[in-house]
User: Which sequence fits this backbone?
């Protein structure tokens, strides 16, 4: 905070009022409601609700296909994070290395950031369409009979492909700005000490990029968990039947399609706890290994 | 030799990123039957005007109240409304946190910080229940304001205000400026670049919202372009030869304004993005 500050009895409260009002009404109230209704079963005809303790949690965790979906979500998150981060980093390293045309490449590579996930999902699902999709035709030459929307693994493949595509620009932007933040003097010193470009990258550049990478790890995780909703929705087209979906999508399905307020809330709370724990875990354990220059 | 290799990788990256969008746009200029029999197109068709005229002006949906143009208008309302709301709320809050000494400061700070941990997607159903209680379904308020309940903007401005030299405040106080005058005459003009950068990032974020508009708007006259994609998909499932061209056209229209803004104001956008998320 500042050394010099204003002293005023009510002005700071006035300035904070709009933000706090919005947060209390649209963040804390719903969050508390979620926790509360996760312990109740709503009467289907709207005549009150019954306290059932932890039953919703038990049903959510062990009933139906929750665990399968959780496992898929974990794999999905890992694959999307690793692929989009490494492709983004590769492109950023190359864009940083060249002189000619760097800004043209940059513009072309970041444009997709602005595409809405469902728009990306819609276009992507056409590329994987049974009738008109070029990808389906392409892989059929290799004997792969791809059926997105019918076959579980094919749908997962399409979902991951589109989600990675949509996330590459974000990783590219941050890796590039991280790379450009490395002082020229450090690079020059490294060049004098070590001739192998690859080894320089591993031992000098990458450790200096680790704060960026650490930050991107968290962001990519949140992206895969939450922001891919539009992609999942457009790829499975409301027919979740035999298709892979993520945990957030299941919360939506159970809550709005299945009208299961208690079950959906219990899942929300579980996910809240998972996100909370992961965030703390990342800060405690991963950050120690990160090199802040 | 190494340079050529670098360029090849970058060209392949550009092809991978931009290719699908170009193909989608070109395909949208053909007729659905043609697309159905021949697949995606890489040559220009002669139905550009028909397709886009239809998507923009012909009313569709179940009630016939929705056109591409009305969706475009709603998208702008959501994008601009969200960006402006976010900037105003977070600048005021950040000003209070950084420049005032008051008892509840720390508590408020942590209350705001907590919102970063739980995105809207996790608490959609209870949020929706709250909205119905408040009677905000199918209103612009219900569409925009709940999205503002996150602290990203506040942190961005907090960071920036802390980097503003202390001497400015000292000088202003010596000259007799009060907190309001200091904010309006010094801090706001000083933040101009930050505000512009923030506006672009938040506009794109608001424009691209999908899940929340999907839940909050049942009245088609409130649909945004991105929300319209859901409608196209619902028609899709039952039809023999879907209107591929219109679906592509809608996707292109939905991405055009945010993509243009990001490309044109690139440096501001990158500044806003890399500094707000930290």
Assistant:
């Amino acid at each position: 905070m500042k050394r010099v500050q204003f002293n005023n009895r009510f002005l700071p409260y006035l300035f904070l009022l709009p933000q706090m009002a919005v947060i209390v009404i649209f963040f804390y109230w719903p969050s508390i409601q979620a926790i509360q209704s996760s312990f109740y079963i709503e009467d289907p005809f709207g005549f009150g609700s019954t306290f059932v303790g932890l039953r919703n949690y038990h049903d959510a965790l062990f009933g139906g296909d929750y665990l399968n979906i959780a496992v898929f979500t974990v794999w999905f998150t890992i694959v999307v994070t690793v692929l989009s981060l490494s492709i983004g980093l590769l492109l950023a390293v190359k864009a940083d290395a060249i002189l000619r045309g760097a800004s043209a490449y940059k513009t072309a590579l970041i444009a997709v950031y602005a595409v809405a996930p469902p728009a990306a999902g819609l276009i992507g699902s056409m590329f994987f369409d049974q009738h008109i999709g070029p990808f389906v035709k392409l892989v059929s030459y290799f004997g792969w009979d791809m059926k997105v929307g019918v076959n579980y693994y094919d749908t997962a493949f399409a979902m991951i492909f589109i989600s990675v595509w949509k996330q590459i620009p974000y990783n590219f932007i941050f890796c590039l700005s991280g790379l450009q933040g490395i002082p020229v003097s450090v690079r020059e010193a490294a060049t004098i000490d070590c001739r192998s470009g690859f080894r320089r990258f591993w031992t000098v550049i990458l450790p200096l990029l680790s704060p960026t990478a650490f930050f991107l790890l968290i962001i990519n995780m949140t992206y895969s968990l939450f922001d891919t909703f539009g992609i999942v929705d457009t790829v499975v087209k409301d027919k979740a039947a035999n298709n892979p979906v993520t945990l957030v999508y299941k919360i939506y399905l159970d809550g709005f399609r299945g009208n299961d307020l208690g079950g959906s809330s219990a899942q929300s709370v579980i996910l809240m706890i998972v996100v909370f724990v992961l965030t703390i875990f990342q800060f405690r354990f991963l950050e120690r290994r990160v090199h802040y220059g | 030799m190494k340079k050529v290799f670098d360029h090849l990788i970058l060209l392949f990256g550009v092809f991978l990123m931009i290719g699908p969008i170009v193909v989608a746009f070109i395909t949208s200029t053909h007729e659905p039957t043609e697309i159905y029999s021949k697949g995606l197109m890489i040559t220009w068709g002669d139905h550009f005007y028909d397709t886009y005229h239809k998507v923009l002006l012909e009313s569709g949906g179940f009630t016939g109240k929705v056109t591409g143009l009305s969706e475009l208008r709603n998208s702008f309302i959501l994008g601009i409304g969200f960006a402006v709301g976010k900037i105003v709320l977070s600048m005021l809050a950040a000003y209070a946190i950084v420049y005032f000494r008051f008892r509840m400061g720390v508590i408020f700070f942590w209350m705001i910080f907590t919102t970063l941990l739980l995105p809207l997607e996790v608490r959609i159903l209870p949020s929706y229940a709250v909205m119905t209680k408040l009677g905000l379904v199918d209103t612009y308020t219900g569409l925009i304001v709940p999205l503002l309940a996150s602290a990203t903007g506040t942190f961005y401005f907090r960071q920036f205000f802390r980097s503003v030299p202390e001497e400015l405040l000292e000088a202003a106080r010596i000259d007799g400026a009060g907190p309001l005058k200091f904010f309006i005459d010094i801090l706001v003009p000083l933040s101009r670049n930050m505000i512009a950068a923030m506006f672009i990032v938040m506009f794109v974020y608001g424009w691209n919202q999908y899940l929340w508009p999907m839940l909050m708007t049942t009245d088609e006259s409130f649909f945004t372009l991105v929300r319209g994609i859901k409608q196209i998909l619902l028609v899709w499932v039952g039809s023999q030869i879907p209107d591929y061209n219109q679906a592509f056209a809608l996707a292109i229209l939905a991405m055009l304004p945010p993509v243009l803004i990001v490309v044109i104001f690139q440096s501001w956008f990158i500044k806003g993005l890399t500094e707000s998320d930290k």
